[in-house]
Structures are given as C-alpha cells and as structure tokens.
Write a structure and sequence with these properties.
Oligomer: single chain
Order of helices and strands: EE
Low-confidence stretches: none
Number of strands: 2
Strand content: 5-15%
Number of helices: 0
Number of domains: 1
Length: 41
C-alpha cells in the first residue's frame, strides 16, 4: 500500500448513527484494506 501523494480519497456518504455517545458508520467489507480520513463537516 502506498500513501505517497497523489492519494485519491473517495467520499463516503453512509448515514451515521449514534449509540452511547459515539458516532457509528457501517461500511461494506468488500475490500481487504481500507484507510479512513475523518474530517469535521
């Protein structure tokens, strides 16, 4: 895996839910490796 620029990030539009004060988002497990960049809206 190479994270050297240029790295293409794809937006995820799945809905968030909240449970016990934590935000939860479920994503499909269709890939072996995934990295996520969390940003504030």
């Amino acid at each position: 895996m190479n994270l050297t620029p240029p790295v293409v990030w794809a937006p995820v539009t799945n809905a968030l839910s909240r449970s016990d004060g934590q935000f939860i988002m479920t994503v499909p497990d269709s890939y072996d490796v995934r990295l996520f960049r969390l940003v504030s809206p």
